[in-house]
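Q: For a teaching handout, I want to show students what a protein-ligand complex looks like in token form. Below are the inputs, and the small molecule is pyridoxal-5'-phosphate. Please produce the holo structure.
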Amino acid sequence: MHDDSQQDAWSLETLAIRAGHERTFEQEHAEPIFPTSSFVYGSAAEAARKFGGHEAGNVYSRFTNPTVHTFERRLAALEGGERCVATSSGMSAILSTVLALLSSGDEIVASRSLFGSTVSLFDKYFGKFGITTRYVELSDLAAWEAAITPKTRLLFAETPSNPLSEVADIAALSALAKRHEAWLAIDNCFLTPALQQPIALGADLVIHSATKYLDGQGRAVGGAVVGKHDVLEEVFGVVRTCGPCMSPFNAWIFTKGLETLSLRMKAHCEQALTLARWLDAHPAVTKVFYSGLEDHPQHDLAKKQQEGFGAVLGFEVIFGQEAAWKVIDATRMLSITGNLGDVKTTITHPATTTHGRLSDEQRAAAGITPGLVRVAVGLESQRDIQHDLARGLDALLQG
Ligand SMILES: *Cc1c(COP(=O)(O)O)cnc(C)c1O
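A: Here is the structure, written as tokens, with pyridoxal-5'-phosphate included.
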């Protein structure tokens, strides 16, 4: 007899495969897709009860959809959160969270090394409505504390950072947030719950771009917010009213993507560590940024707080931007793209792409040097990845 009442005792690998699916009367084995915009009722009275929220049930897919709900339950279980709300993208997950929790006059304190669009959202759009953001060094706890004012309602961080792999102490940030009655939101895109569980470390909210490792194969754009029931009810209200909901097709892709999450993340980490060590030993590389390397400034914290070090790393080549571009252009297999979180290895030049809109000073402050190359290590053979990078790196040494 099938029984998932034991779910509380399941480990992460099992939850990723089995949590959240409530079988329909068809007794399907795999998770079904419900591509329907609306739902029908047995009577006018039932419609009235469901519209009024007096009876649980689906009304309209901007509000709830069974396929989306399966994904939400599964991700909530993996993150150890009470509830998850899925969104159309990672950006709309952040947008919905801030719209739900903050008002004009409130302040955000955020790490300096954030995803570029998150910075635009905070500065250009929230700024228009009187929400101000102060940026601090991700790993400098004193700087976080100094930036907090009585108006601060939200602390927001990505850890580890992109592309330098800096790590923030989530438990310490959580203590700080609690002391100042602010929420702590962690963008957990780079590690996923397979490698890091911010809620267990004290974070109030976890934000995801499902577009990255949750899918893991570059097939769909989506996002999610995970946290406690009461806070998530507010986020749900925004998504329901403003409309950045996840499509059932995408929810199905993400649900199936989660089934291989643990395996993929383990493999991504092994691949990245091997590549980081190889790059570190290459004479054309001056520095490798990866928290899995013993000489990384937050290596011990990363080891304590994370199950693995993730698969995004940066490395600096000798001779600056021209050389960095040569290494990128010499690849024949790696995908030259700003995206990450894919079984296909991607390579990019942050200074002229993802961080291209920053001023020279901002870039320098963020540690994005002209010679920096970012690789999001995929699951192709290690030999082939190294071979593709060696072509350009070896050429640099020959002049
Ligand atoms: C990609 C990304 C986002 C935005 O997600 P989208 O799904 O592209 O909207 C947010 N945070 C991080 C860390 C990301 O890498």
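A: Two things your students might notice: The pocket of pyridoxal-5'-phosphate is lined by residues 89-91, 115, 117-118, 158, 187, 189, 209, 211-212, 221, 223 (CB under 6 Å). The longest helix spans residues 261-280.
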